[in-house]
Structures are given as C-alpha cells and as structure tokens.
Predict the structure of Cytochrome c oxidase subunit 3.
Amino acid sequence: LLSLGLLFILYTMFVWWRDVLRESTLEGHHTKVVQLGLRYGFILFIVSEVMFFFAFFWAFSHSSLAPAVEIGGIWPPKGIGVLDPWEIPFLNTLILLSSGAAVTWAHHAILAGKQKRAVYALVATVLLALVFTGFQGMEYYQAPFTISDSIYGSTFFLATGFHGFHVIIGTLFLIICGIRQYFGHLTKEHHVGFEAAAWYW
C-alpha cells in the first residue's frame, strides 16, 4: 500500500510539472502576473527552508555555547574527535561557491540569449554539485563519530544531511533546467523555473 501511494505521488508530481511546463513554454499562459505569483511562492518556500536550517544551527550554537552537564559541560563533548575544518569542509565550501558562480554565469547567458553558454554553465554547475556530494559522502565515511554520539553527532549529521539532501534536490532541479535550456524552453522573458532553481541553489 505504501509503494502504491508513493507511485501515485510521483505520478501526480510528474503530470503536474509536465502541465506547468506545457502551459509556460507551448501555450504561453505564464503572463507577467503569473510569473510574479510563482516567484513570490518560491520566495516563501525558500524562507521556510532558511528557518528550517536556522533551527539546526541554533541547536548546534546553543549546545556549543552552553554545554549541558550530561555531556560533561565541555564542547565538543569528551571522546568526540572533530573534523578538521580546513580539509574537506573548506574544499566543499569552495566547490559550492564556484557552483554558485557557474549558475550565475548561466543566468547571465540566458538573459543575453546565449543558449549554448547557458547549457555549458549549467553542466559546470551540475558537475560541481556532484563533486560536492561525493566529498560529502567521503566526509561522512571518514567522520570519527556517528549520529548517535551525543548532541554533537546529532546536530552535525542532521544539518549536513539535510544540506546534502538540499544539494541533491537542487542538482536535479538544475539538470531539468539544463535539459530545458538545451531544447530552447528558457528565454529572456520566460525563465522563472530557472530563476527558482538558481535561488534554491
């Protein structure tokens, strides 16, 4: 029954997105007012994600600034080996910043009407995202602690895990935009889907 429900949800998502793409590219129903509504809706979604991630950062900050007696009153808790922030975390930060520059390059290419450049920039962004995801997996594998190792492990794996999930969803979003750009669906006037993907990124 669960599998049937999941299949039904995936089918509904596919049909809904197919109809939205058809309405915007083939039928031209996405007027300026509709585009503005889509932008506002996506901005509200991003604000909700910011609050979601803020909760994890708050949990980590609160626990580190006022360590509880249960974890020995010190941070990081006794027995926890921490990751060196100048190794994989720093490299992943540089990769994400570079991918942000690449997606901005794609946006400028779309606005300039340079379809091939936009596709190249989106391919670069997706490749950087895949490298980031690979390094994130490697970091998880090498971490000297687990999710069950006190509040430190819990907040680390929850925050970075949901961020990794965010990156995977964003990567899929950008792959779809790259395919749409390749087929010429995104123009200077109609590229709200790409803008949403770039904002999400």
User: Anything to note?
Assistant: The chain has two domains: 1-29, 31-200. The two ends are 34 Å apart (CA to CA).
